[in-house]
């Protein structure tokens, strides 16, 4: 019955020239009207800029002085030692930081999920807070926290008898500082994602395993890890893509220094575009970054079996 | 006993996460020299008023806060409506080009923000919108991730529910407003919180698009202030507290929406 009525309703609202009261919004044109605002925004601020950036990457100069130079910017990129430095720094931070953070997040989530834990809501609230901080607030806070002579971190280390570290002044420690800042910023966020995953694992699985006499370690490897696999993979992909585009932390903490030790691809892009106003070169860096991100994305999709 | 040990460890992690915010709030009440004293200050001082007055003098705080709120509210409201309408079309209607547009929309998720920023800057320059608030708002009204989120949630609404309303003679807009919106309220709230937080904290694009201090948003004003040599950090700390602590309070009030909004953000790619 619903079906026939629906069809009637559809014909009635169909806005055919014969209907006595033509409506502005009909069942036939409504999807186009609904999609129109999004389409306008998409074309103007996504599709057009993405294509324009590709063209800009093949040019030099700006405005009336813009000239087509073919692949010159890309040739320059391949021969630019600073670009390779930024690529190396990004890869280094990626390889060190992502595994540490995700492992910490998993341990934290397991702790948060334990039935033995008291005041769970409070702790969960606290670990989530860092991910709400904006770039600038975070940068200001950490630049003071990491300061050599009067920073909170060195004071804390001092309690344990560790000498003050020049966090932002040496190439080695500056990288560590970026890793620490990143880890502080995003571990709780990932832990809350894992926690949601852990809570969706059916309790019956654990109960059955316990009946079968499986110990805690066995239950973890045979139930928790496989059940959590899709979420683990998701966070690996997201963190990898996010770190490949790393900009915030080096921008506010180190400015890419000292000695370019924390210069990342995105930071190098920004410097070329908006410090030297070399738009053509910056656009070429942006496209190189896109290729790298897309390459990683495809690789990881492939490894995860092509699931969305 | 084991429960207490675990609780203690989590309390320590909690302190590491929340400690910097507490320290920030305390630092905002101390003078510059005390902030950089050898021992951190974990108790409130008496300089909050003086620091705030200095901040107001340096960055015209009221103006800057007004700009930030205006951009965040307008941008979030419009972006939610755009996402809801588009998500509704994708989930509940057949139309030509639907799948192609959807795939295109999603594929832009993997394109780094750095790609579009230069052409958008030139576009805004040509439109003479640089150094205006619309320059911040316009590029952020179509949010592919938001549309995706809306579509996924709307797919879960049974068609019968919509058809029943149509049978009762409701027009399409009425169906949307009376049937879809009430069901979608939690998802809309989550997306709203997510977008508002993003707009409130947004830095890079406002930094590029704004020129005069009266047009600045809070993050741009703060960064500029911090970069000035011999800056008095008491005022910077007050500004930082103003920019981050309201979000913490909002988070405490809207915990559920925040977490589901940010977790949904995990699909952002």
TrEMBL record, chain B:
The keyword Phosphoprotein does not apply. The chain crosses the membrane at residues 61-88, 100-121, 133-154, 236-254. One of its GO terms (cellular component) is plasma membrane. SUPFAM superfamilies: MetI-like (SSF161098). Residues 65-254 form the ABC transmembrane type-1 domain. InterPro entries: MetI-like, MetI-like_sf. Belongs to the binding-protein-dependent transport system permease family. This is Carbohydrate ABC transporter permease. It comes from Nonomuraea montanisoli. The lineage of its organism: Bacteria, Bacillati, Actinomycetota, Actinomycetes, Streptosporangiales.
